[in-house]
User: What shape does this take?
Amino acid sequence: MEFGFSVAEQAFAEEVRAFLRDNPLDRFALDGMDAGYGSGAHSRAFMRALGARGWIGMCWPEMFGGRAAPMFFKLVLFEELARAGAPFGPLAGSWQTADAIIEYGSERLRAEVLPAIARGEATFWQGYSEPDAGSDLLALKTEARRDGHHYVIRGHKIWSSHAGIATHGLVFTRTSREARRSRGFSMFVVPNGTPGMDIRPIRSLTGGVYHYEVFLDDVRVPEDLRLGPEGEGFQALLNGLDSDRFWGRFYKAPALERVLRRLVDHANATGASTDAGLRRRLAAMAAELAALRLLFYRAACLLRDGAPITYETAMAKVYADETGQKLARLGMDLLGLWSPLRAGSREAPLDGEISHAYLTSLGHTIAGGTAEVLRTTVAVRGLGLPAEPRKA
Assistant: This one.
């Protein structure tokens, strides 16, 4: 596999760097917290700036308003934004939704929502998990009942990122109880503010809000806001989960490299870098981040070439999240007694970034698929091992 960038991709990387130099990040208002995944905070203003450059829809087919740019242009954009610490939190979800609309969407979704995504005006939350349906999403209870040319949705979603500040939700529902277990589900694109939708914040360990729970009380949705045929939403869900595990973690390596560089600079400035044990830990972390980046690029090359992806995204997500936790612990050790101080505290080292990274990283091995479940995916699909037997 060739991991080098083409001349056009290198030129695009420089174009993104120039944009970041000309548009200092502190000029963009923030609307939601940085959850530590590497994509920074949620900024509507920054998303609109990306849309104005034509970068959000650049890889879409021309018939949908895109430029049909190669997929690797997305990777270039992600890496440059992550290295700079830009607030592009909603971008991966917007791309994921756009791909679903292009593949499964109605003419209405393609005509109304796609252009709003391209302009950076439409952002999305995922209505997948429920209080009694986390890793087993097919145990969900949210139902969509057909009523003429509409559906009436009733249910309860939880851990939905950005739900309180996004414009739309991707709501996974049950539309039939007669079909076999993997059928009878449908996905809807539901505008925020639809009557019957109640969105409530969930306070995180940092004190900020990233996740929300959403109550859906007889929410009426037109049938042309459904993704794909009725009862066949499970495939859209699977595609979305694989997309989330890849695109939602791809930028973690360059983001963590930026954090590691800050720790190295701090160690050099304070003299801590003379400690042999610390030097070995920092060097080992640099090697792990290089391996993480290559792991994602291998999966990217498979996606680019149309090769089957069976376990690679699961493996990459587990490694990305656990490496992020390891770097956060290393940072806390390096900063010592001052490390727990948060942003805004007068004596907080590195602006409280390491404390924030430590607290936010704790849930990363649960969100988007638990590390335990994904290890089973790697064992069964990647290594050919038998699935873990059920307990008697």
